Amino acid sequence: MSALKNDTFLRALLRQPTEYTPTWLMRQAGRYLPEYCATRARAGSFLNLCKSPSLATEVTLQPLARYNLDAAILFSDILTVPDAMGLGLYFAEGEGPKFERPLREEWAIRDLQAPNPHDHLRYVIDAVAEIRKALDGSVPLIGFSGSPFTLSCYMIEGQGSDSYTQVKKMMYGRPDLMHHILEVTTRAVIDYLNAQIEAGAQAVMVFDSWGGMLSQAAYLEFSLPYMARIMAALTRERDGRTVPRIVFTKGGGLWLEKIAACGCDAVGLDWTIDIGDARRRVGDRAGHQGVALQGNMDPSILLTTPEAVAKEAEQVLASYGHGSGHIFNLGHGISQFTPPENVSVLVETVREKSRAFHV
Question: Which among 213, 197, 217 is positioned nearest to 205, based on CA atoms?
């Protein structure tokens, strides 16, 4: 493996000094880029794109060719894990992901098994290795997975949901079944992320996209403890370097201190919380280790003007303030309707204006 030429992102995750605030963006390889759309059309479908290591490598690298980003993130989907569990993932045109066999029957839940990532998710592991080789040490590669709770939501509902009726009925009516699904899924995520690290991922992130819809008691029972178990079981060092771990619960600002204590190195923030307030709540203080923070500009800003984008980016930087431990990102994924030139403005503004906070 080539030596890493730009390790700013990894150092920021570990709250080590950096010259500027590093940037990467959730869904940075996506439909807002014409080159991505062209590759996806060539693949024939989103799943074909995910399941081809060479095409996944191609789209992972596309935003890095355009923008001065400090990390690449594996191009894949969080639902590859339940697909490998045999639930039959498919994408209905214009409707998003669905499963042919959602978990509703007790026998199916009891039969659920964690897949071997080297067998059932080989295409992802091969993509990680191929991307890492193609990056040639330019920037670090992020691996990722959905959280056990978020994956379980899709597995039970069979698709995305606004109300999560089936999930909540099971949580409150048959918590034993819910915990069984979460147990198996946690083992699957641990194996999957460790296989990604072994193949070359230099940092990993757990996306808890739906954790924020839970009550506090339910979050502390059905989501956070399982993510803490993942943090404790991940490979901590590879190629002589620490492998940092990021946890992101969309809508999780209420539980920030508890998330920060789950064993992660960095907490991802959505745009509903001020990053300066978040830093004061979970930063260094007596008896508290502190974590890095990743975020947290509202991605809708990118639909406006270059001036508005630059102004908002500067406000996020100023709110975090001086010192290390900030990875600039959006509070959620880039909209497909984002003008690519606005992303250029964002990335260049952060690179230029953040230097004043690192002297």
Answer: 197
In 4-137, which residue ranges form alpha helices assigned H by DSSP? 8-13, 34-43, 46-51, 53-66, 80-82, 106-111, 117-120, 122-135
Angle at 315 between CA 310 and CA 318, to 5 degrees: 125
DSSP state letters, 214-248: S-HHHHHHHTHHHHHHHHHHS--EETTEE--EEEE
Tell me which CATH code domain 8-358 carries.
3.20.20.210
Residues marked active site are found at 27, 31, 40, 77, 154
Cβ atoms 293, 259 nearer than 8 A: no
pLDDT digits over 9-42, tens only? 999 999 999 999 999 999 999 999 999 999 999 9
pLDDT digits (tens, 9 = 90+) for 248-278: 999 999 999 999 999 999 999 999 999 999 9
Report the C-alpha gap between 9 and 14 in whole angstroms: 9
What is the mean predicted confidence (pLDDT) over 313-317? 98
- Contact (Cβ atoms closer than 8 angstroms) between residue 201 and residue 74: yes
Residue 207 is inside which H or E element, if any? Answer: strand 203-208
pTM score: 0.96
